[in-house]
Structures are given as C-alpha cells and as structure tokens.
Automatic annotation (TrEMBL):
InterPro entries: Methyltr_RsmF_N (IPR031341), MeTrfase_RsmB-F_NOP2_cat (IPR049560), MeTrfase_RsmB-F_NOP2_dom (IPR001678), Nop2p (IPR011023), RCMT (IPR023267), SAM-dependent_MTases_sf (IPR029063). Gene3D superfamilies: Sun protein, domain 3 (3.30.70.1170), Vaccinia Virus protein VP39 (3.40.50.150). Belongs to the class I-like SAM-binding methyltransferase superfamily. RsmB/NOP family. This is SAM-dependent MTase RsmB/NOP-type domain-containing protein. It comes from candidate division WOR-3 bacterium JGI_Cruoil_03_51_56. The keyword Methyltransferase applies. PROSITE patterns: SAM_MT_RSMB_NOP. It comes from the Bacteria. Pfam families: Methyltr_RsmB-F (PF01189), Methyltr_RsmF_N (PF17125).
Length: 326
C-alpha cells in the first residue's frame, strides 16, 4: 500500500530479520499485510523534512534559506518541505534562529488533525520536546493560551528551549503528572493533544535501539500509562471540544485498545473520521487477538512508514459531547 510511485529500498530481508525480536516479527507479520515492505523501509532513514515556522519567517524566506538543499513542497501541507539529508542541518543559522523546525512528516500530522484556532485554550498534555507544541502555537498565530505540560524536569528544559527558539509567546510550560492535570483543568480546554509516551515502534528507522528495548511487557506497561493519560486529557476538554490521541507505535494495545478504554469510561466520547488529502493513512484495526474493537474505533488512522516515507504513527480524533447526549 505504499504511495504511488514510491520506490522501496533493496534490503536483504533474511539478514535484516536477525535484528528483530522473534515475537515482534510474529506479531506484526499478522498485523501488517505488506510486512515485507515495512521491513524494507525500516532498514533506511526516513526522508528529512522541515516545517516552516510562520511565527518567524515566511515560506519563501525559508525556501531561500535552504535553497542548496533542494526544498520540495509536500502535497498535504504547504508549510512542510522535504530536503536533502546533509550533516549539520541543525547547526545552520536559520534553524538556530527558529525559522524552521526539523520534524518528521508524520509528527506534523497530529496538530493538523487537531486543527487549533487563534484565541483558543489548548492543552498539550505530554509536550516535550516541543515539535508539536511549537507547531500548534504557530497555528494559533501566537494568540490564546497553549499549556505545554510534561512530567520530566529534564525534558521540560528541552521543551522550554524549543519554545523560546520558535518565538512562541502564547505557551505556558508546566511540569505535572499528566494523570493529574485533567482534574485541574476539568472542562476548560477547547482542544487537547495527548501525544502519549509509547514503545516507539514507529521510530525504528531513526534508531534500532527501539528493538533492544522492545517487549510485550513494555507494551502492557505503556498501555496502562496511556489509559490514564487519555482519560486525563478528556477530562480537561470542554463539552464540544476536540482531542487528538496519538502515538508513534504500532501496538494495538497502545492504540485501538486505549481508545476503546476511553469509550468504555465515557459515553460522551465520540470518535470522528480523519482525512488529510495527499497523505496516505490506513484504517484502524477492528480486531486483535480475538478482541473486537467498537465500530467507532475504525475512524482512527494508522500511518505506516512505507506509505509516505515517514515514521509510523497512530491517530484518533475525539469529540466530547454533553454528559447525556452527543
């Protein structure tokens, strides 16, 4: 299901499979119909992409800054560009000044689906290192209030640095357990992003260390954490507000399973369809290991690396209805 015209790399699959835990291969060869294509593309780095930071520069100014890297506009968003991958791009003056942000294309999708508006109150519940926070801030045109939260002091320091470099003036950074912030902000946010910590299976192209840390027990541990975070994010949402739940993993327990958990707790949670013309996304699973997911979960979307030359992601768009009705 790779994007039309995409050329998959040549990879010796027999040799390459030795890098993968046997249980990983057994699980995902059943989940991904074109598993051989998945393996081929994860043996290569994803295309280098950047996002124009409209708080500091115009699209044309950034294209001029990066002219020697052959910036190529991507078809699904006019502020996303593919560039040649060269050493030291992060040390260029334009990056230091915050004119653009180096960001995998799939990582740009959750804020686009969330679609924040100027003057709104938005919560980014697990915000560090700040790629999506700074994107949301720019989409809000530096107005309203964007609460960027993370539970780690170390990660918050990096978040603050990226927010400052991008010139985001509408961002309030805080450090709090994501499970608690929903109670504090109950029914107060127009939009919420829960880009949850996960097993990062979708980022194998970036680092094969992901495979060294991979286990089914880690999936189960993260899914319990994610259950708490998605509930907390939903509590912070006002009636009628929208929440995006996203991960960079493939595991159904961390994706469809977490959305199913939310639906079981809140009858006023409604999963909405997701579309982004020009970007290939696959429907969510309807079953996994004998468990059937509720029909609305099919509205969620999966992003696989071989379809758009990106990392892997999962997305759910959820609307909060009134307590009694949608």
């Amino acid at each position: 299901m790779a994007q039309a015209g995409a050329v998959l790399p040549r990879v010796d699959l027999a040799q390459y499979l030795q890098d993968f835990p046997e249980e990983f291969v057994e699980r995902y060869s059943r989940l991904i119909p074109d598993f051989a294509d998945f393996l081929k593309v994860t043996g290569t780095a994803s295309r280098k992409t950047i996002r124009v930071n409209t708080l500091k520069a115009t699209k044309q100014e950034v294209v001029d800054w990066l002219g020697d890297l052959g910036p190529e506009a991507l078809p699904w968003w006019d502020l996303a560009f593919g560039i040649r991958d060269v050493e030291g791009i992060g040390k260029r003056l334009g990056h230091f000044l915050g004119l653009f942000y180096i960001q995998d294309a799939a990582s740009m999708i959750p804020p686009l689906v969330l679609d924040p508006k100027p003057e709104e109150t938005v919560l980014d519940l697990a915000a560090a290192p700040g790629s999506k926070t700074t994107q949301i801030s720019a989409m809000m045109q530096n107005t309203g209030l964007l609460i960027a939260n993370d539970s780690s002091s170390r990660r918050v320091r990096g978040l603050v640095g990226n927010v400052d470099r991008a010139g985001c003036l509408n961002v309030a950074v805080c450090r709090m357990d994501g499970n608690r912030i929903g109670r504090l902000l109950e029914n107060s946010c127009d939009r919420v992003l829960v880009d949850a910590p996960c097993t990062c299976e979708g980022t194998i192209r970036k680092s094969h260390q992901v495979l060294n840390r991979w286990s089914v027990s880690a999936i189960q541990r993260f899914s319990r954490l994610q259950n708490g975070l998605i509930v907390s994010g939903f509590r912070a949402l006002r009636p009628g507000g929208l929440m995006v739940y996203s991960t960079c993993t493939i595991a159904p327990e961390e994706n469809e399973g977490v959305v199913t958990y939310l639906l079981s707790k809140f009858p006023n949670a409604f999963v909405l369809p997701i579309e982004l013309p020009g970007f290939v996304m696959r429907p969510a699973l309807d079953t996994w290991k004998g468990e059937s997911f509720p029909e609305p979960v099919r509205h969620c979307r999966r992003i696989l690396p071989q379809d758009n030359d990106t990392e892997g992601f999962f997305l759910a768009l959820i609307r909060k209805g009134d307590a009694e009705a949608g």
